[in-house]
Amino acid sequence: MASSIPVQPHPAPGLRRNRAFLTALGGTAVAQLGTSLYPMILPVWVMQTTGSAARVAALSSLGTTVRLLAAPLAGTVADRSDRRAVMALANLARAAIVALLALALASGHGQFWVLAIGSAALVLAGAFFSPACAGAPGGRTPARVGENHGTPRKPQG
């Protein structure tokens, strides 16, 4: 008995050969590495250079305040815009900010206020990235879109 399942002569290339996917994966990995290390390194650096725990606390408080104030606007922008564009722009902004901070530190202009402004800008860019990433479609299928948004589906039948 012959099989009725059509056989594809050339299967679609896997993700390991998909250049766009590998570029996005590499960029995301670098961005996440920087995003993970920066909050750990900055307080240590501030404490070692200034010797002031109050400045470390001020830096932390500034980041929290910026995140709280920006979150409603960032969530609205992420919901009403192309999420991929929001994520890409936020990552580009974060990369530029980190590059400028590294340049400031390397040139000897790494005063506390420069770091505070840079840190606030990084948190602001991250505030736009997070809701766009969290709301990205991922593995939604047309039958389950309503479930993912919290709205009940119509009963089948």
Automatic annotation (TrEMBL):
Pfam families: MFS_1. Keywords: Cell membrane, Membrane, Transmembrane, Transmembrane helix, Transport. The chain crosses the membrane at residues 20-41, 53-74, 86-106, 112-134. It is a multi-pass membrane protein. Its main location: membrane. InterPro entries: MFS (IPR011701), MFS_trans_sf (IPR036259). One of its GO terms (molecular function) is transmembrane transporter activity. The keyword Cell membrane applies. It comes from the Bacteria. It is found in: Cell membrane. One of its GO terms (cellular component) is plasma membrane. This is MFS transporter.
